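In the current project phase, we have settled on a layout for protein records. One protein thus recorded is set out beneath this paragraph:
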Amino acid sequence: MDQVFKFIIDSRQAFIKLLDTLTLDQLNEIPTGFNNNIIWNFGHIVVSTQTLIYTRTGIREGVNWVKYVDSYAKGTKPAYFVKQEEVDELKKIAIESIEAIQADYKEGVFDIITPYETGTYFATLNSIEDVLVTTSGHDNMHFGYAVAQKRIINNQ
């Protein structure tokens, strides 16, 4: 699983590099044909992973402990102009949350989880390993959206 954690962190660092190439206006712009923007896609992976790993598996109750969950959870869309301080904090949480999950994994926190079916992939996740692999795919799907959005923004 060390390789899976490394891949998730490497992918998030690539996403952060993409964010760093854009202005705040570009991060907040909703390109034609989309209902969200680049910073929403990034914020979404940050909050979704935490809720999938801890809440959906039955390890923690509720989602109020996840910072920015109301802004980036599934079913939300951009509702305000995201400022630099929030972008910086999301970048920090993106890496630190995975490091915390990895530490909890090594401590055996996830040895027994409640299986659940994802709404995106309609797959039943029976183990934390299933959840982590699916998280990786989910992260990269949203990274792909952000790359496409950047191309549209840069070609206007």
